[in-house]
Design a protein that fits this description.
- The chain has about 250 residues and is of the alpha+beta class.
- Helix content is about 20%, strand content about 45%.
- Strands 1, 6, 7, 8, 13 and 14 form a six-stranded antiparallel β-sheet that branches. It has a four-stranded antiparallel β-sheet with strand order 2-3-4-5, with no helix packed on it. The chain has a four-stranded antiparallel β-sheet with strand order 9-10-11-12, with no helix packed on it.
């Protein structure tokens, strides 16, 4: 029975060691882990140094959406180039539930939307903008006057509602609203390339493009935690599952 006892003791040692390793990995994650959510248009790039990712550069090169026949989003994916801390440039592709991993960096596909490029004339001065759908521009701080924008991929010309008939880009329109506080003073819908005036504020809708919402994570403690769980499973197996043989009659202990 001494051999059996040795196995159990060895398994117990591994179990206690695994707990220590898991705790260490969790501590590393808490002290050094970092994550950041970013929204990038196709063709745009960002330096992530100011988000605690030194020397990391990310550029989105493509984005696309696949739809079911009922127009529900089936899958969306982003392609990008990543410059690592070592200065190496690598190409990556991600989609929902299929993240990218490289040199301790993980990138997840989180969301998508549209960036709207246009112009509004304020007091005779042209102010260009490129904003995410649903955002607004401050026109006059004293009057609390804002220009709110809403992009509609498939505008309903008959109903004139703010709900897109489908998510497909069949009749893209920009709806602009001049808002004072919570009151809507005027609203217009614009096709790409069109200019309309809202109470003395001419607005031009130039173009639109996709943006992709990405979550960038770095967690150096993850590998340590996984190693700890591997040790934990090994310790349990040795402690409780390793078979042993009964001693034969007449065999000395």
């Amino acid at each position: 029975m001494k051999k059996m006892t040795d196995y159990k003791q060895f398994g117990s040692v591994i179990l206690h060691l695994s707990i220590l390793v898991i705790f260490t990995g969790s501590l590393i994650s808490g002290l050094t882990g970092n994550k950041s959510y970013i929204e990038l248009g196709v063709g745009d790039s960002v330096q992530l140094a100011d988000r605690n990712f030194p020397n990391i550069k990310l550029k989105v090169t493509d984005f696309k959406i696949d739809f079911y026949e009922n127009h529900e989003p089936k899958q969306y994916q982003s392609k990008f180039s990543l410059t690592t801390e070592a200065g190496k440039k690598v190409q990556g592709q991600i989609s929902v539930n299929h993240p990218f991993t490289r040199d301790g960096i993980k990138i997840y596909q989180q969301s998508y939307g549209y960036l709207i490029h246009g112009q509004v004339e304020v007091a005779g001065k042209a102010v260009s903008f490129e904003l995410a759908n649903g955002k607004e521009i401050l026109l006059d701080a004293k009057q609390k006057l804002h220009l709110k924008i809403l992009f509609i991929p498939d505008f309903d010309e008959q109903g004139k509602t703010l709900q897109s008939k489908t998510p497909m880009l069949r009749n893209p329109k920009l709806v602009c609203a001049l808002v004072k506080g919570k009151e809507i003073l005027a609203a217009r819908d614009l096709a790409p390339g069109e200019t309309k005036e809202l109470r003395g504020y001419p607005v031009t809708f130039y173009s639109y493009r996709y943006f992709t919402g990405l979550e960038v994570k770095r967690d150096k403690g993850t590998a340590v935690v996984f190693s700890g769980f591997a040790l934990l499973l090994g310790g349990l197996a040795v402690r409780y599952l390793v078979p042993y043989k009964n001693k034969r009659r007449g065999e000395k202990p």
